[in-house]
Amino acid sequence: MALKKVKGNIERMFDKNLTDLVRGIRNNKENEAKYISQCMEDIKQELRQDNLTVKSNAVAKLTYLQMLGYDISWAGFNIIEVMSSSKFTLKRIGYLSASQSFHCDSELLMLTTNMIRKELNSQNPYESGLALTSLSCYISTDLARDLSNDILTLLSSTKPYIRKKAVLMMYKVFLKYPEALRPAFPRLKEKLEDPDPGVQSAAVNVVCELARKNPKNYLSLAPIFFKLMTTSTNNWMLIKIIKLFGALTPLEPRLGKKLIEPLTNLIHSTSAMSLLYECINTVIAVLISISSGMPNHAASIQLCVQKLRILIEDSDQNLKYLGLLAMSKILKTHPKSVQAHKDLILQCLEDKDESIRLRALDLLYGMVSKKNLMEIVKKLMVHMDKAEGTVYRDELLSKIILICSQNNYQFITNFEWYITVLVELAQMEFGSKQGHVIGAQLMDVCIRVQAIRSFAVAEMAQLLEVYTSTSQFTIMQEVLYAAAWLCGEFVSELQKPEDTLLSLLKYKILPQHIESVFIQNIIKIFASVMEKYELKEQYDDILRLCDLVTEKMSESIKSGELEVQERASTSLIIMKIVQEEISAKKTMGNTKILDSDEPLEGKSVMNPEATVAAELLSLFNGELNPVAPKAQKKVPVPEGLDLDAWINEPVEESDSESEPEFTENLFVKTDKGRNEKYQQEPTEDDIRRSREARKYEQQNNPHYLKGNSTESSNGNGREDIENIPVAELDLNVPLKVVGHKRSDKYLKTSTDKKKSKKKSKKKHRSESSSDENVQQEFTVEVKRDMELPEGATLSDSDSDHAHKDDPHRALDIDLDFTPPPGPNLISPIIISAANQNKRTIKLKKRRNTLRTSRRRKSPVRKRARRGERRAPVNIKKESLLVVDKENEEKGQTKIKKVKKEKKEKKKSKDKEGKSKSKKHGSRGYEEALGISTPSKEFQ
Amino acid sequence: MIKAILVFNNHGKPRLSKFYQYFPEDMQQQIIKETFQLVSKRDDNVCNFLEGGSLIGGSDYKLIYRHYATLYFVFYVDSSESELGILDLIQVFVETLDKCFENVCELDLIFHVDKVHYILNELVMGGMVLETNMTEILTRIEDQNKLEKQEAGIAAAPARAVSAVKNMNIPQQIKDIKLPDLPQAIKDLKF
């Protein structure tokens, strides 16, 4: 027995350790998976042993395998065993493995609470530090609640190493257990003035993160931060503080005014680029928030722009990137100062670095004017050809559309050019979403700009024709959607509507929403073509077209998609009616037996309003206007309508079960899955009850296809023709006449890309030279109005672009991540000061739930609300700031001296560093890693 | 906040992965793969910032990386971190590695990924920067290594002996042992 044990021990000594595993994997490159599965078996074997050393060895190997993508959650219990070892070495392995593989939803975490608590309170600082580090990766709500007090005690540990970690840990605790914030906040505030710079920096870090979620709670800390900013020399911390100020200034303009001076001083004095950059950023934020009323406002902007120009001109690509990034922030409020540097930005568009080009693109929309728009777009189109990554292409596309369409196409002088550009774009390859953008844009232009319709429609007809006639032609299908719709809607602008109709009829397999649009617009064009024929009494032609349409529709009616089916069947019925009417007319015409009501004269005198076509056309009557983006939301809820109330009391389960029976009657096609699901036979009573309930519901539901009408029209349509209320159709509508205004000179075949490219290039030249002519030729009028419900105004619908770069957007969107609102999040001062806090909290809660919908309330109202609550804080802070002023001035002079010395030292160091780092690429590997330049900014 | 720290080589093989937000293992691998594809096609003389990693975060997240010889060091950070600051942090990290491993090379990271983790844990904790002062970091690491050595003491002796034996690579050594050329030796024998 004893012998066996000894033998086992000896065997275990020859177990593979981590190094062996890694070596083994490297030696078995061909069958790595097989080798690893073999190792997994070994590891499982080892985990079954009692010896903790053996187990820890296994766990160490598992951690490595986790990095390679193997799930090791099954070993969670063993990991906990290793964590509980009394030896630091083993513990370390266990905690590392835990931090890599556990997450806050792991059920095993329940088991760790006491163990971690013991570890946190350990005498050895490294043991508690280890526990803190590991815990920070997988802390759960339960752990946060149970351990928050222990971590809070660690905040006053004697060892700065522990204090530092505990401070950072508190942030993780707050995230999971927001209730801890309120009691911990004063302690956290103390740590901002901790004697140890590391702890200070950690506390600043935590407050910065907290302030991202809810900045106004931390306004009260501004004086402390102000002091830190003017006294500290730790660049890392300064950066964080300055970033924090950037977040606070929008809430408190007075703070901004105070900041400008020290920040400008820092900008002038610092040698660290990172700090300089953050200073500029915050100055920009300040300037944006106070916008005017500052004595040397313009000077500060000028300073920022100048410094940024230096950054952009720098040979270091990183600085260039950041310079452009900051520029785009200025552009929003002070476009003129940025426009002065147009040359530089256009130059950056040519940069070989994609990140930089993307940033330059962002700036571009502020750079365009009527004069240079075409040129810029042409450049971008060239980029488009060269670009490889779809990300960059997509970005280019959306930027082209953005700069052209901004301010209701303010800068476009020639819309024909723009349509050509869009058509060219449509033939390039993009990500899946981009087709939709182009399509929407085409439709938007045509709806808003009346003058361009005929050109655009001709272009679209061309597209459709080429698409259906050749197979190699590539185009984005979403654009076909727009093309079909435009041809149908503005059919009067079509030159050869019949040809277009024929090419539309030849469509191939399309996504369902596009196919439905095709069907709908086939009917529209058909109606207009028919009118023409009917007036000329070419009944045979109409019948021929009818047959063509019917043929296609009877294909589409087999589609799996309901929408397509429905439209196809509607069209079929319409065709049937038309066919009958027309053949009736034809026989009448042939036999010359005319109704007494109709005039007896010749062909040409036929009353246009009495034609079948006119009736059909009246279906598509009226102009469609653009709808404002938020119109739907703005429709007021009528008084007395409660959208949350049940219309019917919810019917029990049997309702949904018996559903298939009904659908079977209503639709030809039934879902197989549904039928299978339907197994339980409901009792007679059940069926009756649910049927009644449903009938009632159907009657009230405007979207429901009424069973009767569908059935009858499907089944015996012939009888129903008489029932169709033909007479009620509105016939007073003026007839649409096929237009003759088309400018034939713009017609061109865009079959192959290159050809059209050349043409458009030519056009650029000719147009730019005769810009004025063009302008006079088209007195282009862009419709700016959009349909809105009565009483609503557009004023409060912000554009989405404005908010894209807002650093605090996360605050609004990440609702489940934000600690829930409540007393905890309001800083103690606010609570003590505001007696009415209960009401505020209620308000806040409601606001939070409504936040997503209300996010874009008018700024005025927002500010007003904020102002109410902030009032008590302001008073206190103001006095604090005054006291600080003296300190601040003393501090500054000191810093300046220190900095001068430092600066000189750094200069020489920097030079060394730069020359070395430049050689990195060419040098050997070991040398490259062995650079001994001290980190420039944190020493 | 830092969302993830990845180290991989020029072929995209992961050498270190640290996620401060939970992702399942297969997702982690996808992120590494995607990151590698994004980063590897960039020249060395372009900027060190990248947007457009689709798997982590969204528009608020940025990818900041440095390329050292055969290794890429990539940090995923959100907008609360200073871009240049993170670049310096990467530098500090690499220099610390260099001090700890004495002329660090990829092999060190391959065979001592655990130690690399311990070093990283002294720089970043739970996605927040813990310490940027290299001397402080080095003291902490050395202290903990000492602690391990003390514990090892006698207990680890057999294990160390075993690994020493293993490292000797006996089969190869046996092959390498040069025996005198026997036939020749026989011939040389003089009676």
TrEMBL record, chain A:
Bias type Acidic residues, positions: 651-662
Protein source organism: Aromia moschata
InterPro entries (UniProt xref): AP3_complex_dsu, AP3D_dom_metazoa, ARM-like, ARM-type_fold, Clathrin/coatomer_adapt-like_N
Primary location: membrane
Sequence segments annotated as region (Disordered): 651-720, 742-939
Protein name: AP-3 complex subunit delta
Assigned keywords, A-Z: Golgi apparatus, Membrane, Protein transport, Repeat, Transport
Gene Ontology terms: biological process: anterograde synaptic vesicle transport; Golgi to vacuole transport; neurotransmitter receptor transport, postsynaptic endosome to lysosome; protein targeting to vacuole; synaptic vesicle budding from endosome; synaptic vesicle membrane organization
Stated family: Belongs to the adaptor complexes large subunit family.
Top-level taxon of origin: Eukaryota
Comp. bias (Polar residues): 698-716
Subunit composition and interactions: Adaptor protein complex 3 (AP-3) is a heterotetramer.
Keyword DNA damage: no
Subcellular localization(s) per the UniProt record: Endomembrane system; Golgi apparatus
Compositional bias ranges of the Basic residues kind: 754-765, 839-868, 893-906
SMART domains with a match to the protein in the record: BLVR
UniProt biased composition (Basic and acidic residues): 669-697, 744-753, 798-812, 869-892
Domain AP-3 complex subunit delta residues, every copy: 682-816
A GO CC annotation given for this chain: endosome membrane
TrEMBL record, chain B:
InterPro entries xref list: AP_complex_ssu, AP_mu_sigma_su, APS3, Clathrin_sm-chain_CS, Longin-like_dom_sf
Keywords annotated in UniProt: Cytoplasmic vesicle, Golgi apparatus, Membrane, Protein transport, Transport
Pfam families in the cross-refs: Clat_adaptor_s (PF01217)
Location of this chain's protein in the cell: Cytoplasmic vesicle membrane; Golgi apparatus
Listed GO biological process terms: Golgi to vacuole transport; intracellular protein transport
Cellular-component GO terms for this entry: AP-3 adaptor complex; cytoplasmic vesicle membrane; Golgi apparatus
Topology with respect to the bilayer: Peripheral membrane protein
Domain AP complex mu/sigma subunit intervals: 1-147
Purpose: Part of the AP-3 complex, an adaptor-related complex which is not clathrin-associated. The complex is associated with the Golgi region as well as more peripheral structures. It facilitates the budding of vesicles from the Golgi membrane and may be directly involved in trafficking to lysosomes. In concert with the BLOC-1 complex, AP-3 is required to target cargos into vesicles assembled at cell bodies for delivery into neurites and nerve terminals.
PANTHER family in alphabetical order: ADAPTOR COMPLEXES SMALL SUBUNIT FAMILY
Family under the similarity heading: Belongs to the adaptor complexes small subunit family.
The protein's name: AP complex mu/sigma subunit domain-containing protein
Organism in which the protein naturally occurs: Aromia moschata
Lineage of the organism: Eukaryota, Metazoa, Ecdysozoa, Arthropoda, Hexapoda
